Amino acid sequence: MNPRDLTLSQLELFVRMADAGSLSAAARQSQVTPAAASAALKRIEVAFGARLIERSTRSMRLTAEGELLRDHARRALGDIDDARALLGAGREALSGDIHLAAPSDLGRGALSTMLDLFMERHPDHAGPLHGAPSGRKADALRVGHAAGSGARAG
């Protein structure tokens, strides 16, 4: 087996074993059985051709090779998490116009407070805010226009 054939889950499990100092604790955290965690450790050791953990019935400790792999695996997993966050950031950004229709008393009260909070949380949102006090054309005419009606006030 080649180290390139290992999965991210296997490397995460190894880092958990190293951090927890316990194969069974790492197995619980990873939601696998201790036997599955032990088999994964064996695959990792075969892939790297090195003994990574010294185990006894009561304890385990990383070998020098295990410490080296833990440090590199932790950095690699961190880099992957960073890449995921950077790539996902563009999909999480808000864009577009905001269209609202609400009774004027709601707009003056709770809605304006919510919009202020929204704009504080999303200061980069540059879309214009369109709205009418309610969904009725008569109310829309009072504030300027009714979308799609061709009607304009004043």
Rg over CA atoms: 29 Å
Structural class designation: mainly alpha
Q: In one word, what is the shape?
A: elongated
Strand content bin: 5-15%
**Percent range for helical residues?**
55-70%
Number of helices, counting only DSSP H or I runs of 4 residues or more = 6
Q: What's the number of extended β-strand segments?
A: 4
Low-pLDDT runs of 5+ residues are 134-154
Beginning-to-end CA distance, first to last residue:
78 Å
Q: Mind describing the biggest β-sheet?
A: 2 strands, antiparallel
**Arrangement of strands in the largest sheet:** 1-2
Provide a descriptive summary of the structure in words:
The chain has about 150 residues and is mainly alpha-helical. About 60% of the residues lie in helices and about 10% in strands. It has helices at about 10-20, 25-30, 35-50, 65-90, 105-120, 135-145, and strands spanning about 55, 60, 100, 130. The strands form 2 sheets. The chain has a two-stranded antiparallel ribbon with strand order 1-2. The chain has a two-stranded parallel ribbon with strand order 3-4. Strand 1 and strand 2 form a beta hairpin. The longest helix is centred in the middle third of the chain and has 29 residues, at about 65-90. The model is unreliable at about 135-154 (pLDDT under 50).
